[in-house]
Amino acid sequence: MLKIKEAIIVEGRYDKNSLSQVVDGLILETSGFGVFKDGEKLELIRRLAQRQGIIVLTDSDGAGFVIRNYLKGAIPKEQVKHAYIPDVYGKERRKRKAGKEGKLGVEGMNPEVLRQALLRAGATVVDGDGPAPARGALTPADLFALGLTGRPDSAARREKLLHRLGLPQHMNSKALLAMLNALHTPDEVAQMVEELEQSKEE
């Protein structure tokens, strides 16, 4: 497994599934063209780019390049690296027929091809046996201690925190934990939760 500092941006969940066999790090989906209309997701990608850099890894077809060019125009170029997969013709196993251009996407690539694509893009590989570095070291137990999971009002508390952070409201607790670790230190998160508590009491 490659432990990579940058967050990797892919088009969809099947791409994410394939990539997670290769990468120990944060992988975020654009939901295809969905990112064009999702201001929250674009803002999240911008923040990740600013904090740790991003690697854009889209399919090699026309649609993939439209998404790549959109992100290229939305984020400062020094915060973005671009990984490219080769043109390989065929069809993914789960699909009944090949895509419009007949090319395999990220999900259909051999793990070694994905690995090489990331290395060629200049991915920052982290040495050691620990997980890929994140700003924080929050654990699921910390979310519980902060009241963000395991309580009757946890969903409401998470919703307030997501709103405060400008993150998508439908994000589950596992995704929230990954984003908090990518964007904030444990102390910053504890401080935010405390401030939200105080504003509720006022």
Please, could you describe this protein's structure?
The chain has 202 residues and is α/β, with parallel strands linked by helices. It has two domains: 119 residues, 3-Layer(aba) Sandwich (Dna Topoisomerase Vi A Subunit, Chain: A, domain 2); 62 residues, no CATH class. 44% of the residues lie in helices and 9% in strands. The chain is built from eight helices and six strands; from the N terminus they run E-E-H-E-E-H-E-H-E-H-H-H-H-H. It has a four-stranded parallel sheet with strand order 4-2-5-6, sandwiched between helices. Strand 5, helix 3 and strand 6 form a beta-alpha-beta unit. The termini are far apart. About 3% of the residues have low confidence.
Tally of individual domains? 2
Counted by DSSP, the helix tally is 8
Q: Indicate the mean pLDDT.
A: 86
Low-confidence stretches: 129-134
Q: Which strand order do you get reading across the main beta sheet? A: 4-2-5-6
From the coordinates shown, what is the CATH architecture of the largest domain? 3-Layer(aba) Sandwich
